[in-house]
Amino acid sequence: MKMERGLESKGAWWRSRSARSRRPERRKNRVTASLMLAMGVSALGGCDLDVTNPGPVTDEFLNDPLAQPALVNTIGLAYVAAFNRVAYQQTVVTRELHFAGQTGFAGFSFDAHLGRLDSDNVDVQWNNTQRARWVADDAVRRLREGLGDSFSSNANAARALLWQGYAYRLMGENWCHGVIDGGEPEPSAVFFERAEEAFSEAIDVGSGAGLDDVVTAARAGRASVRIWLDDWSGAVADADEVPTSFVHQLETSTLEEDQYNRVFFGSSNTPWRAHSTWNTFYEDYYLETGDPRTSWDEDPDFPFGNAEVTGIGQVPWFFQTKYPTLDAPYPLSKGTEMRLIEAEARLRENDREGAMELINEVRTGLSSDHDDSPLPEWEADTLEEAWTHLKRERGIELWLEGRRLGDLRRWIQEGTPGTTDDMTDRSLCYPIPRGERQQNPNVPLDFQEAPTG
Amino acid sequence: MRSLQFLSILSSLLLFPLGTVAQGPSGTVAGTVVDQSNGQPLSGVQVFIPDGDLGTLTNAQGRFILVNVPAGEHTLRAEILGYTPASRTVTVGAEETTQVDFSLPVEALGLDEIVVTGTAGQARRREVGNTVEQLNMDRMSEPMVNVESALQGQAPGVNILQTSGTIGAGSQIRLRGNVSVAMGSQPLVYVDGVRVYGEAYPSMHGRDAMSGRGAATASSAINDINPDNIERVEIVKGPAATTLYGTEASAGVIQIFTKRGQTGDARWTAQTRQGFAKVQPFAPKGATYGAEDRKSEFLYIDPWLGNGHWQQYGLSVSGGSGDLGYFLSGAMEDNQAVLPNDKEERYSVRGNLDFEPLPGLNVQWNTSFTSDAIQRTSMGNNAQGLALNAYRLDQNYFGSGDKEFLDQILEFEITEDITRFTTGLNARHTAGNLSNRFTLGYDVANWEGRQVRRFGFILFERGAVGNLRWTLSTLSADYVGSYAFDLPAGLRSTFSWGAQSVTETRNEVEGYGEDLPGPGEPTVTSGANRLAWENRQRVVTAGGFVQNVLDIADRYFLTLGLRVDGNSAFGSDFGLQAYPKVSGSYVLSDEEFWPDAWGSVRLRGAYGHAGRAPGAFDAVRTWDPASYAGSSAFQPRNLGNPNLGPERTKEAEVGLETSHWDDRISSSFTYYRQVTEDALFDVQQVPSNGNWPSQLENVGKLRNSGIELSVDASILEGPAFGWDAGVSLSTNHSRVLDMGGAPPFMSNDMRIEEGKPLCTWTPRRIMNPHEQAEPVVSTDPDDLCHGPAWPTHILQVRNTFDLPGGIGLSARGEFQGGHYSLIGPTSSAVGRGNTLWPVCLEANRLWDEGRDDEVKAWDRLRCRQSTSSSDWNVSPADFFKIRNISLTAPVASWIPGTSDATLSLSARNIRLYKDPDMELFDPEMGGSNWGPESGSRRIREHIPAPMRFSAQLQVNW
Predict the structure, then answer these.
(1) Band (A22; pLDDT cuts 50, 70, 90)
(2) Checking CA distances to B485, which of A45, A164, B99, B943 falls within 20 to 30 Å?
(3) pTM, entire model
(4) Region of residue B534 (phi > 0: left; psi between -120 and 50: alpha; otherwise: beta)
(5) pLDDT tens-place string over residues B829-840
């Protein structure tokens, strides 16, 4: 079967011309064809594949001296994202707050609400904290290389070192084992050693730069990590340099979710109502004492959390008011914490009375929210009672400040006297998450850790 | 105001001077064109005098009339896609009317049809070694809602899934499945040779929370094209066909050809479409809630579902005079969907001009403009969304399921404004055996999304305003030259060369303000706290190609080609990319020994490469500017990879086409196998190395394979009754062949794991879901892939009946199966204590009655708050849908003064059959059509696409 050759040009179906003079047309054809060929070549030749797009900042720019203040803030930005996640999640693990129904918020598993942290559900906390640590190291390295000899008296360098200390403290207080830059799991002591080193250098550089606030914060920070390194004399020496009224805070912001005060965000009607002081020590304690450090409130329009809980039903929504706004700052170091470090050091020397004096020094300056009367002093007839008061007072003083998990682990693992919150079957630290185990060949998938109380 | 602007533009186009001028003595030629097989009239046939600048189209009765034909002898030719062209010699007398009738035989294989897409300029189908789907939209009987729905279920290997029932919701389009994990698999789109943006518009979300605030729906840019302007669509599905498009074409190419004018008097077409939409139940019956008796079969959202009225009006004119042809069109739509805030107003105009400024130089200038204003309801996995709060009853964010509370969500104002302008100049010059074609195109899509939650809005009392302005322009230049010459021994060679460049510029600026001062009409400026973002990107792709087609005796064809490309997103250490192709075609039935009685047979095969480029910044190590507590800072953005290059997909396809019994039965079969090498995977970095985001690396290897089979038959042919039927089967099996040592990871809810398909995966799986026993939960890696995330089998069936009186009835349906979907809302609702969740009603009743032993293992985990998890909510997503049933009837006799008129009644998506385990929603919904996320098949808090009923009246004169 033969098929005739089909149409050569569909687009010109009504205009196939045949009766035209050939010679002028040939010349025109050559001109037209040449013109089109030139257009075709220009279509390709006019292209520049070396495109520069604005917006993202190239890595080299971070070494520019003009970028140094922003480089320091880079650590703050990473740190607040990390601290938010860790501080918020541990409120339910350590019974500072009780979940109120919104089980899925912020990636909390149901188990996390019951106090159990497993490696499948803590990637965000690990990843953010590792970023803060790594970014701090990177910034200090860039500043050290860029500033040369002037590093030792540079204000940006002092602030970066202070952040670096807090970043390592965050890892050390919350993870039983840590990993640095894709290495093998190491005990948390390695983080405290690095934190101490960074705080020490921050004190030196801050002194050189004349930054008293940085120096005091670094001393407070160093005191808080030395207690983990069993250097109580060093901790007390640092604490002694910090006035009781001193507070070094972590700024938060209303404009980026990672920078919100997440404890406020998750427990307020935003619309999560995810956590409540119901069924915690602090519910009754505040009703009894009106201690302003553990304040909470309720709203008759929203009496319950936003969902029912199996086995409990609707959970009363008693929302914390320690952080009243989305941009309320978190304390990172306080003089009152230093007094309690000094008190704990005395208890370790069996000085009950000296310890109680320091503990009550923290309380007596405060008035009850109920009737404005001074808070009652704790009394202890035995060393064990004094330990119990210390543990409770640290819980109250550092409530919702992301420090409780570390304290409970430290005391339980050391077997210190006294009682505190029941951590039976509850995690005492974060495990290395699944993501790190999968991506890092130096961490076995079945690496065992994460003790419970 | 929008209406006035539109009318102004439309009137200026339509008042273009038209008409023809007769010179010398002339006569008239009139006649009819019918289908040779059944005598039915053929409309839209081009009838013309090739050497006389005269032509027209037949009307619905197959009639044509050519006036002012110069007296004398002429050749009259009739052509239409799908039929063998015919010519007649006719002698026209002055002032006389000459009758000429044509009876055109069906050409099932269309061997001499011209195809353009994937070829070097153009080619006859017989020369092309790969499949080219050609859909003649001009002859589609059913009313078309938009381009995506018009293409849905129409061709094997073409899969279009509508993501939700929200107005304007776009679809996920796949041609032969997923070729990329990281870069999306939406095909490229061309309109009349001009590259246009064809993917999703942005989906805006409020900046005040981690979840999206808004409609959680993206419009699709391909739907900016008025489907009534389309003459035909060509689809090439894989690298074997798209090699000449180079670096960005591995997912295939869809090319749309719009209507053109023809010499002759102006031919006017006016039409209107009226219709309504309705949601079918999408969950088990058995419970009601609240004073309104909200029903579980609608997941308790039924009080907010309406029957959206939609209407469309269109007017077009086409014709030509001398060296000029024109097609001008305007249309307006006013649509309401089923959700309470959903509305759309769309206006579009198009002008297509053809002219011949020099002998042999044909120029086409095509311009279109679309304006689309959309309002939407807040939906999705969104604490301020209607569906989420309605589905969860009193366990929602109000703590109340009362309708009066939830109605306040409707005060969340979500709008989109789209303006789209596309213009293209196409010049084609032919001089003897040399032809040159140059196309310059410019396409700009402007999208503005705005969200307003006024001061006092129940779920965000401080109030917030967001505004995102997004512009994407595509500048394309395309040159193709071709020279044909004869060789000894009956050989003919056509050598082609070309150069193309595409520059895509994407600019977006977003402003967000919250803490509004009080009531009033706010802007972003009204916010006490304001944020702004800007993103600007330009990506350039440029390359050239050479190709040679060797033609032996017009029945053996061998094509060899090579394309070389560069792209601005390639890494600094990465060079140009070369993509080869080879294809062959053999028209076996043209052999001397082949008896006519055996019909027509063509064998074909093709092999080619194409690519998929990484994103603009993917190769470079960068940080994002950021702020911390009001001061400037940086945060890690991209680790960088100087060796980053495109993915390369290699495809081989072989197949044949046959037609028998006077073309009454035709078939097409293709086997294809695609392997994507250097596949771009988002490789997760070791978190303790700074927790940098995943970095694209060319480490993977994927395979896609399957068949495409189509059989069409003209079962009954007669003057009074005809029945055509067709069936298409396509399969697609994906597999991850190599991951370059990377561990398995999730991407867009799909598990990427060596030796497995792109999986719907959960970290735990119930192995005895239907047993009345304690659940057996497996964490064995071999059990965790439930199955492919995308359909492995698609079956399309179609029937067309020609009834007495010119009435036509058509019906088509589509089955998709073999895949699994994640159903997100179950764990979210049960996890918050919703005890009326429809799939758990039975389990809750049994527990209440103390018949715990009778509860299914599946329900024991998914229906308890303490154990509720998304791990338990994966279901087979097999479904069959009746896509369309249409009835068309000629009604010219009812409307005086018209040359033809047609009334069409249509019902779309009216019946759904699905797997019994898929108890909720519509398996077709889910996921996103937005770029990188477009692979996901997770169903979120949306409603399914509704049924649509419509009536269309089209009048020509």
Answers:
(1) very low
(2) A45
(3) 0.83
(4) beta
(5) 888 778 899 999
